[in-house]
Amino acid sequence: MLFCISVAAPAAEVSCYTVQLAALPSEEQANAFLRDEQLSARCAVVAVPGLYTVRCDPERSYLLAMRKMGPYREAHPSAYVNVTPRHLVRALSSPPSQAQFTCFEDRDVFDTVLLPASFMAIDQKSDEDISSIVTRVEDVRDEYLDQLNDRGSFKGLYLRSQLDRDTNTDDEREQLFLEWELFDEGWYESKRELDEKRVETKLQYLQLLRDMRERNMHESLFRLQGVINAARFYQAKKILKALKNLLTKYEEQLKQGYATQDEFQDVRYKYESAQSDVHHYSGLDQRRMDARAFDIANTIEYVSLASVDSLTKQAIDNSYDLQIQELFINRSEFFPQWVDNLSLRLYAGAERDFGADQRDNIVGIRLRVPIDFKPGRANMIDIEQSAFRDQKQAISLRLAQKTSRLSELFQFHQKRVKTAASQYRLLQGHRNLKQEQSRYPLSALPAAPDKVIDSLSIELLAKEEDILLARLAAFEVLLQLDALVKPDSLSKLVAN
Question: How many of the other CB atoms lie within 10 Å of CB of 343?
């Protein structure tokens, strides 16, 4: 192994993020990946339960780690960044006496607030979800339609035999004919029924898949709500811990006369409110994110969506509603017509009549034409189809509007993340400055009371929650876009 992770006692907190490129089923495949990508100098194969993971040297910033693994993302979609706790990471490729830290503090690199590593579910999902049911339905549909398309219609051939006996004379009449029915229970009706069955089957499956996809979206949003609950619970516990320490501190200061009753009551109210939040969120459903979703949520402010025109085109191409309307248009052609009552039969056979000594060979044609032609069929079909075409136009327009609205909403939440991150950085800098003034007071400047630092610390925790919730709100919009556009994977929605 080239390195492993160990905890040191740093003088200051530093972020370290381990780049994990791929999880492969065998060590041979993992080593082949290192060789093929020429990563042996800075990456290693690390065994994890049931898998062999390719991990590379840690980076001091999550974004730097994401950029490092970028070239392998498309070829290896299982790649993700494993976020380690905040500590220095030491490379043990050399003897311990020569070991050096591989992550160094860089004040120019700002890491915004990220979802913690505990929010990522590395293990495969064990519970069946609706997406797997949708996949099965699609497979069944494809298999059934393939067999239905391979099934040919009835050719209209009949073998007709008849035997009549005269009870008075015991004479018999025998008939044996091969008939080809083109109309009237023949080839035409069979083909028409089979074509109608194909259309109806496609229509049923499209309606089923549309409903299943909608349920799948609601399930995805339900799972995401579990992640949002987990984020709120995570932050509520952090705030409760900080307020508990403050409450103890202010209670002591109140006794000594360094804090007022109002200040103490204010902290106690916030503490009790945080207690209520922890109690509330602890009882809610909490879930984790898969590795790819975790990556996207933690870099959501840097995601560039594909163009609105491109997304709209994908949404229109993959729309079940539009495909259903097209099938409605095709089904209109099955409106009854006069040819449905037309009868045409070609036949050839042999017949021996009563008392005859020889058989007669017979070839014939029978045509029956209805005299009621029911005019106006084409006009009625055109009226019906025009309504479905108008519906298609309305659906396409609405898809474009939804795509545009969701794209704008996504950009709005991205701006929320960036704005909250900037505010977080300002608060952090302001608190650091107050802490410096508290440690090294200057006579020319007024003293910075600890209460200001305490207030800023609580504000920072609240701002952390704003950032996490803004990330998840943006990701929720991405899930809605995914349900609307229906790409092969969530990654196809983004340009980077």
Answer: 15
The residue assigned the tokens 């409760």 is: 240
How far is the C-alpha of 476 from the C-alpha of 224, rounded, in Å? 7
pTM assigned to the model: 0.73
Please report where in the chains the tokens 């740093």 appear, as a residue.
Answer: 10
Determine contact, residues 159/322, Cβ cutoff 8 Å. no
Residue of 299, 295, 302 whose CA lies nearest to 411? 302
Per residue in 372-413, pLDDT (tens digit) is: 767 777 788 888 889 989 999 999 999 999 999 999 999 999
All structural domains of the chain, each given as residue ranges with its CATH number in brackets, are 17-111 (3.30.70), 130-151+186-335+376-493 (1.20.1600.10), 163-184+338-368 (no CATH)
Q: Which of 346, 363, 357 is nearest to 174 (CA)?
A: 357
- In the three-class reduction of DSSP (H, G, I as helix; E, B as strand; rest coil), residue 319 is classed as coil
Do the beta carbons of residue 78 and residue 22 sit within 8 Å? yes
- Whole-angstrom Cα distance, residue 297 to residue 423? 19
What does the pLDDT look like over 102-149, one tens digit per residue?
Answer: 565 444 444 578 888 788 776 545 456 766 777 777 777 777 777 767
Residue 372 CA, chain-centre distance (Å), reads: 56
Q: How many CA atoms within 13 Å lie on the side-chain side of 473?
A: 17
Measure the CA–CA gap between 89 and 101, rounded to whole angstroms: 6
Residues linked to residue 367 through DSSP beta bridges, in sequence order: 344
Q: Name the residue with tokens 């709120």.
A: 232
Pull the structure tokens for residue 55. Answer: 């991990």
- The stretches of 74-186 forming alpha helices (DSSP H) are 130-150
The answer for residues whose C-beta is within 8 angstroms of residue 50's C-beta and 6 or more apart is: none
Alpha carbons 275 and 257: distance in angstroms, whole number: 27
> DSSP states of 9-24 as a string?
--SS----EEEEEEEE
Amino acid at 272: E
Residues 6+ apart with CB under 8 A from 461: 235, 238, 239, 242
Q: Report the distance separating Cα 39 and Cα 33, nearest Å.
A: 8
Residue 485 contacts residue 418 (beta carbons within 8 Å): no
- Phi/psi at 161 (nearest 5 deg)? -130, 140
* 51-59 vs 90-91, strand pairing mode: unpaired
